[in-house]
Amino acid sequence: MKSRLSILRGALAALALVATIAWTGRADAQQNIAGVLVDAEGVLKQNTVPGGAELNQKLAAAAKASLNKDVAKSSQLRMVSLTRLEKAIEEKIAAGQPVNDEMKYMAGLKHIKYVFFYPESGDIVVAGPAEGWFTDNAGRVLSTESQEPTLHLEDLVTALRAFPAGKKGNVMIGCSIDPTQEGLNRMQQFLAKTGRNLTDPNVTRFIVKGLKDSLGMQTITVMGVPGSTHFAQVLVEADYRMKLIGIGLEEPAVKIPAYTDLVNPAQMAANALQRWYFLPDYDSVKVSEDNNAFELSGRGVKLLGEEEMVAQGGQRAVAGGINKASKTFTDTFTAKYPELAAKSPVYAELRNMIDLSIVAAFVQQQDFYGKADWKMSTLGDEKLFEVETYNIPAKVESAVNAIFKRNMLMTPIGGGVEIRAKQALATSNVKPDTDGSLAKARDGVKLNLGKGQWWWD
Predict the structure, then answer these.
(1) Fewer CB within 10 A of the terminal residue: the chain, N end or C end?
(2) How confident is the model at residue 265 (pLDDT cuts 50, 70, 90)?
(3) Is 73 domain-assigned?
(4) Is residue 408, in this structure, part of any structural domain at all?
């Protein structure tokens, strides 16, 4: 009994995020999870919605019929001049008119492939594939044909504000969801008092409730960007739902075995905590010789893991190393990420947030602000262009997915998102434009635009 309790204590001490009570495991956890909601108290909760693909097809068709035909058509490469877009927004504000959806969603861009700078005109241009857009049944803005997430101008603005003109330093953008030290301490005290028959389902339910109550609310931390932005909401949702997949509480849209399916509890160290976190694939940037053209040549996201130990008083410390089950989970998640992002929009959105961070870091690094004499006086001013309009995610209720495996009860977890955008721009990561194709792509863009025009194909 002592050895089982030791394993139980170690497995349960790994709580960095848990979601829904489910003694029997994943069978109770298969839900139509559409995203997350944050209430006025800052509490993060799952959001489930009725309807599905058929309803979204109808919404997409209706939106496509109502959009301007030019902006609604698919484009392999749509250009948006940020400097001209800001001027168009300033004209709207001066006329007492709201910013329209065409501006809010950057003429339907799905992601950014290029950044071009034109010194002669002062245009800072972002470019990528585009389609029309619609709001799906979960409130997410998706493209009408491929149903990929549409870029939000507010997300790009949030990234640009994180890398403003004249500032230096490697800003880290990210989030973390963690139990409090007090909660971990209470949990260990509860486990120390629990010396019952762990194979009895009634006792198991007692343990699950005790763990949930002792852990209390967990803390959500957002770094580098305001927590009240859509940008931050995406980071937190992707982190939260990745953990649910890892502990078997959300069935992923593609086949990814949960950590709980893979782990051998007999090999888990006492007081071990598995932490899983997203990082960008930084080896993804190409830059022209004159630094006026930039290309994101890869759009990868990695999931990595590390092991921590929880001390008697609830303190956490990195232990080093990673167990085989955790590595298999993170490696599979990484390999399946493109496929998962195609079916679960939040992961495509996370990839876009990483791209936008790298784009903003490049604009700052090359001082396009100064070279274009772009003050970003409207988009950079929260009073004129609001992006901080969401409830700040601050906490999430602890809950436990408890399953038996080899007659042992276990509930391991982990998490985080870390984006160090300037790392992508380090010399070792940047690919030179050896064949001149990037410079040629920039020079092929025509800037003979009409009055007030800020996007074109």
Answers:
(1) N
(2) low
(3) no
(4) yes
